[in-house]
Amino acid sequence: MQFLFLICLLQERKPALAIKSFALYFFQWLIGGLVIGLLAGSASAFFLIALDWATNYRESHIWIIAFLPIAGFLIGWSYYKIGQNSIKGNNLLLDELYEHKSPIPLRMTPLVLFGTILTHLFGGSAGREGTAVQMGGSLADQLTRVIGFEPENRRLILIGGVAGGFASVFGTPLAGAIFALEWMHSRQLRWKSIYPAFWAGWVAHWVCESMWGVGHTAYHISEVPSHTLSNLFWIIPAGVAFGLSGRLFGETSHFFSKVFSKTISYPPLRPVVGGLLIALFVWISDSTTYLGLGIPRIVEAFENPLPWYDWLAKTGLTGFTLGAGFKGGEVTPLFFTGATLGNALHGLIPLPLALLAGCGFVGVFSGATNTPMACTVMGMELFGVEAGVFLALSCGIAYVFSGKGSIYSSQDLGWKKSWFY
Fold first, then answer.
1. pLDDT tens digit string along 301-341?
2. 271 near 325, Cβ under 8 Å?
3. Whole-angstrom Cα distance, residue 193 to residue 181?
4. 282 and 202, same domain (yes or no)
5. Residues 6 or more apart from 15 whose CB is under 8 A from it?
6. CB-CB contact of 180 with 197 (8 Å)
7. Are residues 203 and 241 part of one domain?
8. The pTM is what?
9. Which domain holds residue 384?
């Protein structure tokens, strides 16, 4: 990838300058990507260990959910008093990528880390990608303070931080790099960002999994049918459903955020009220299925038929949790929503249950984040390349039919804004 730089300069007939510039670029990002990967991978390892502890403790001490309103106040008050622009979360990373106003504050890392752990410990419905990405971007951007990079190099730092955070938290180094490049593009892909993204993503993944020994959940598609026209055709309606589901997920989160902002003027009280209602929901339903990450349910979606409404329940509860001001990511809940929706479609679409769950797993994610390439590669990293054609179709169709919606309000959708409504 980095050889593109050398080729471009050689075409200008400046071989000495080309070699010097290439060497500077290569070694600069060899070291830079290594540092970013070490920071992002280590942060993700600590986060995953803490998150696993919080989940296990909550499930063995259900009574702790009654204290979710108190946890909500602590989170809301912390962001209100010292969070400043950190409250924008992933959107702050996008804003800084596009406008380069000021370095991302280091306080974002501890705030989102402990905010997410508290959310999961006391029973909120949220994910982990947002936390890992924000930690990766925040930690990486501290290099800007130390070295004073120019805007173009700072862009590469942010992309490397996002790649490292995503790759290490999910165990998907290729998808992590592609996600950062695809998610953070601003109408065009800058080829200089390819090398830092892939290198930082791989280092972060290695640091988390090999150096710290933190593993990731394994998923398996037990049966992949032949690529007949009939089988491929059935992916079309499934992909449409996944795209609309991704759009619904994003709109739900934005809706609840607006409702809480309009009805409760004092920000720390929003998660208090939200926590009370979530705790009441758990008490009435007598179920914790839709709390936290929901990974056991996701794994089950690949194996056995589940209630058809699982995907709706997770969409609503996660949108409500994040809209109320609790912290965490959206991606794992999107995995939950997609896998259970694919599971529900098994009764209508004559394709293997696990394949539909896998296509939904990445398809809804693709529709909600507008990153079909990253989602396709992630699916192949998680489920195997055998299902690649089905996964790619699912992600592409979901991307199209999600319209101009996104779970990230600051995401630059470029030409897609002219599509649809």
1. 999 999 999 999 999 999 999 999 999 888 899 999 999 99
2. yes
3. 7
4. no
5. none
6. yes
7. no
8. 0.92
9. 229-418
